[in-house]
Amino acid sequence: MTITGERTDEDAIRDEPSQLHVLRAGGVSVVASFAAGGLPEILHWGRDLGDLTSGDAGELIAGLERQVSSSATDAPWPLTILPGEPDGWEGRPGIAGHIAGVPILPRWHVIDATSDATTLVVDAVDAGLTVTSELRLDAEGVLRVRHTVTNSGDALVELAALEATMPFGSSATELLDFGGRWTRERTPQRRALVQGSQVRETRRGRTGHDAPTLLVAGTPGFDASGGELWAVHLAWSADAVYRVDSLPEAQGMLGAGELLRAGEVVLAAGESFSTPDAVFVWSDSGLDGLGDRLHRSLRARPWHPNRPQPVVLNTWEAVYFDHDLAKLERLAQTAAAIGVERFVLDDGWFSGRRTDRAGLGDWTVDREVWPQGLHPLVDAVRERGMEFGLWFEPEMVNEDSDVMRRHPDWLLAPPAHAARTWRHQQVLDVANPEVADHLVERISAIVGEYGIDYVKWDQNRDLMEAMHAGRAGVDAHTRAVYAVIDEIRARHPHLEIESCASGGARVDLGILERTDRVWASDTNDPIERLAIQRWTELLLPLELIGSHIGPARAHTTGRVTDLGIRMSTALFGSAGIEWDITECSPEELVLLSSWITVYKRVRGLLHSGRLIHPEYADSGATVTAVIAQDRSHALYRLARTETGPHALPPPLRLPGLDRSARYRVSPVVGLPVPRGLDVTPPPWLARGELILPGSVLADVGVRVPLFAPAEAIVLEAQLVSSAPDRHYSIAGAVGRVDA
Ligand code: DGJ
User: Fold this and answer.
1) Omega before residue 651 within 30° of 0, cis
2) pTM of this prediction?
3) Which stretches make up the Glycosyl hydrolase family 36 N-terminal domain (predicted)?
4) Are the beta carbons of 557 and 525 closer than 8 angstroms?
5) Euclidean distance between CA atoms 609 and 631, whole angstroms
6) pLDDT digit string (tens) for 301-340?
7) Which residue positions in the chain have pLDDT lower than 50?
8) Protein residue whose Cα sits closest to atom 10 of ligand 1
9) 207, 316, 353, 577: which to mutate for ligand 1, most atoms within 8 A of CB?
10) Catalytic amino acids?
């Protein structure tokens, strides 16, 4: 076995002792030990331990050497990165399955291990199997773990599970993950960590409205800004297992992997199976710290959308299936007049698609509705300086469609019958190369003909009885969908893609490897949306989260809200409008136009800054803030979702700024100031601004109006001066000494 390391520090651990490998980056250390033989054990995943000398390494191993407990194996046993019974582990195994009926119970022998300061790659074998385990710590301290198993024998290998695990700190006693449903995605679920192996399974064939999204283990009472946390996310868009093992004889383990169905992954000689990346994130500054690490990691990707995210007008809630050129042209004209930059034609443009019961899968423009194709609309959009986006739902067909009549054998279904319909649709077997080719060709043809800038890629049903080539087919289908998207992007490098799935049922880092934003939910009700976005923001930075202003009466809940809260909510995201704005009053259009001006002015901040969710001492209201990385500029949104206990609301603290610098604080000009419930709003609001040090803003705060539920205010803090002595404050008056 050779273990190599490249470290700059002379004292850092090198080959000797070769038993320890330390990955360090972004304030995180991961310490892997080979001391027990076999696959490595993770001795530490968490706060950076600093440089360790080879002497420290030996002592660290010695200090953590296990003793033998009562009623247990007679010798100490290692908790490895792929734990299993042969090690002595009796929790959920990391690998499971069988080789010709014989259970997979490997005693791994490491044949190679290479590492540098941020990566460890280990190859190990046992009779008939090879495993390659990769641990990659990125510059932001986010750890990605992937295992690849290869059948190196002759018999068939059937995998039942291949999952990544990492140990978390023994101080973590509480768990958080997410549930949800259509229009209520990413609902947090908190619970105590209890003994045993607990598994969250999803079997929806897509990520799901109720996807766990992140499984977090944390110290008691962890919240947005406090607590030490260990979390895992699976970068995968289909069935998943999120797991936590808390056994009396071992450190707690978090993990995730694909949920594999019986017979789904069968490897012939020489064949391999690679897991999706399990993304592990540690934070010592609560959920905002965790989110910040993830956001930084995503923003460092070379393909991360880094141009200003355009203001979108999506036609769905404006016209649904009622496509009429004159109406859509008026919509485009109105959109352009108020500053919209991208016009997205949603569902309903293709042959036979007058309702959701027909036409899905026939990706040709409906000539009855569009006798000249989409050209007149595309031209109208382009002439007004906007980009053109188009909706597709490539993986699906209506039973009433030409493609299904022609190719009834193209379904992802058991041989004997189709699955139950869902929104009157069935799923195509994209792992069938004919289907994949068809999709790539049809979508490419439309994208090419109209020079489409943006595709809204929808997926509107769970997969059920998904079978490909006579066996469980979710894995093959999902990988094939990824490949189709990759091919389309390769053919149209400038095309941007939005991931949508009945709203937010495909929000994961697997789909975001190949798409540019997600549609977080089908609800544009701002009150519902505030919660959905708040938790989507734990995984994703704002530029990746589509958020639209809908009509006053939300189509999904019937709730009526003012434009102010709808604007403030949609502002914090990749913003747009989904509303028949041809019906808006002139006053509403003026307000929308000024909101767009605000968004264009602050999107650079929103899409690069640090996102935090400060606590506010008034239940019923939430605070979301974005602070520029250099702390020169920040936005704080206070939104009230229900009444609170206070007759006079507590001052709103504005944390995160440079404590010694001074900031001008004012409500964002261009957004409606909430009417509030009190007759006398805080006097400073009438004055328009305050200038205060970051320390005062963080620890004392400023008064805000007593809002009605469904009102919000966005305050802006701008650096005035970092020189404290250029300002003075006397008896409540704040003045500025001009230089
Ligand atoms: C579900 C999406 O979430 C909606 O935004 C819309 O695109 C519809 N599908 C269209 O069928």
Assistant:
1) no
2) 0.95
3) 38-267
4) yes
5) 9
6) 999 998 999 999 999 999 999 999 999 999 999 999 999 9
7) 1-17, 725-739
8) 347
9) 316
10) 458, 522
